[in-house]
Amino acid sequence: MEEFQTFPVHARAGWTTPILSYLKDGRLPPDLEEPKKIQKRAARFTVLNDELYKRGFSQPYLRCVEEEEVKYVLEEVHGGVCSDHMGAKSLVKKIMRADYFLPSMQQDATNFVNRCDSCQKFRILRTIISDNGRQFDSHGFRSFCSSLGIKNKYSSLEHPQANGQTEVTNRTLLKIIKAQLVGAKGAWPEELPSVLWAYRTTTRTPIGETPFNLTYGTEVVIPVELGITSLKREFFDEESNDDQLKLNLDCLDEVRDLASQRMTKC
Ligand SMILES: [Zn+2]
Q1: Phi, psi at 151, each rounded to 5°
Q2: Model pLDDT for residues 196-243, shown as the tens digit of each residue
Q3: Cα(112)–Cα(169) distance, rounded to whole angstroms?
Q4: From CA 253, how far away is CA 257, in angstroms rounded?
Q5: Ligand 1 centre and the CA of 195: distance in Å?
Q6: Residue 59: what are its φ and ψ, rounded to 5°?
Q7: Residues 94-127: pLDDT tens digits?
Q8: Tens-place pLDDT, residues 175-190
Q9: What distance in angstroms lies between residue 193's CA and the mean position of ligand 1's atoms?
């Protein structure tokens, strides 16, 4: 089992320090430039077990991550064990679903993905598998692809809907495998389980859920939550957790129905 990096309670003052100090004992550091702004902002935060949490809209409490920990969270969720080099939008979603809050999350995620070496290497596709739509089967499209060295392949006419879904899934899996295989070509069978795991634990846009949640009715704990304790781990209670898992299973049909409706609308 790989050892996970852990972080001490923040030794240096960071963005959480004035909010934490104000919420804990009503005091603000004397050298603060805009104390009113901090007081106002503090209303959206709360302190649990000496740690700062933001009251979220998508999740009730998000653990606030200090600047020194941001890189670790981004690295672990984007390219660490069981990660799939997802794009910035999915990265933000996955971080929030794991109950973390980074002050400039969207910007940090975009910068991080743009600088990730693995993500830059496979921007031009080798093959495009498309349906038989005229926009893909035209002279213009074919010559555009051939100028970039991309092969065109067309799906069977028999099951257009299933073909479309399979194409999307396969393309995503292929992209993840390529990003994971830097320096380890030919090792894809060994990498496949962690690639599939990453795919299943990341929210897929058409269904608005993770495949894991649709199968088991609950969200999984991802490796970053071992490095920096998340709310789920901090307040884990076996008994209430079991009750919640059962409740989630009772609601699973509803979650699946909603996902199916969302997919139909896409
Ligand atoms: Zn990447």
Answers
A1: -85, 145
A2: 888 888 888 878 889 999 998 888 888 888 888 877 778 888 888 888
A3: 24
A4: 6
A5: 13
A6: -135, 145
A7: 888 888 988 888 889 999 998 888 887 755 667 7
A8: 877 777 766 667 777 7
A9: 18
Query: For residue 8, which of 224, 229, 225 has the smallest C-alpha distance?
Result: 229
Q: What distance in angstroms lies between residue 87's CA and the mean position of ligand 1's atoms? A: 8
Distance (Å) from CA 166 to ligand 1 centroid: 23
Model-level pTM?
0.56
Instruction: In whole angstroms, give the CA distance from residue 228 to residue 221.
Output: 12
Question: What is the maximum span of the chain, computed from C-alpha positions, in angstroms?
Answer: 71
∠ Cα 255 204 120 (to 5°): 165
Contact 47, 195 (CB under 8 A): no
| CA–CA distance, 112 with 76 (Å, rounded to integer) | 12
- The CATH fold of domain 122-181: Nucleotidyltransferase; domain 5 (3.30.420)
What is the CA(85)–ligand 1 centre distance, in A?
A: 4
